[in-house]
Amino acid sequence: MRSPHDVLIRPLVTEKAVNLAQEQNKYTFYVDKRANKIEIKKAVEDLFKVKVLSVNTINVKGKKKRVGRYEGRTPERKKAIVTLRPGDKIDIFEGLLS
């Protein structure tokens, strides 16, 4: 079994993600590409001591980027949108919710 710190890479803090957290109690994280929904749910519940109702995952393809004549791609990632029980909150986002 993997550690919760290996499953969750970092929270995604964008305007859209903060609005989701504020209005619908949904929090967004970048997660390990090999992690499944059960591992993500357990990791969030263990790290933040909250109850997770559902987990939605999205595989994000890397975009093509160019610098001069050199082409490359940004890394591919996996995002997870975690819905929490009403009343539960994650403190990472508290300073951003205004």
From TrEMBL:
Keyword Ribonucleoprotein: yes
Lineage, broadest ranks: Bacteria, Bacillati, Bacillota, Clostridia, Thermoanaerobacterales
PANTHER family for the chain: 60S RIBOSOMAL PROTEIN L23A (PTHR11620)
Chain's role: One of the early assembly proteins it binds 23S rRNA. One of the proteins that surrounds the polypeptide exit tunnel on the outside of the ribosome. Forms the main docking site for trigger factor binding to the ribosome.
GO biological process: translation
An annotated GO cellular component: ribonucleoprotein complex
Complexes and interactors: Part of the 50S ribosomal subunit. Contacts protein L29, and trigger factor when it is bound to the ribosome.
HAMAP family referenced in this protein's UniProt entry, alphabetically: Ribosomal_uL23_B
GO MF annotation: an example: rRNA binding
InterPro entries linked: Nucleotide-bd_a/b_plait_sf (IPR012677), Ribosomal_uL23-like (IPR013025), Ribosomal_uL23/eL15/eS24_sf (IPR012678)
Name listed for the protein in its UniProt record: Large ribosomal subunit protein uL23
Any matching Pfam family: Ribosomal_L23
UniProt KW keywords: Ribonucleoprotein, Ribosomal protein, RNA-binding, rRNA-binding
Highest taxon listed in the record's lineage: Bacteria
Family label: Belongs to the universal ribosomal protein uL23 family.
Organism: Thermacetogenium phaeum
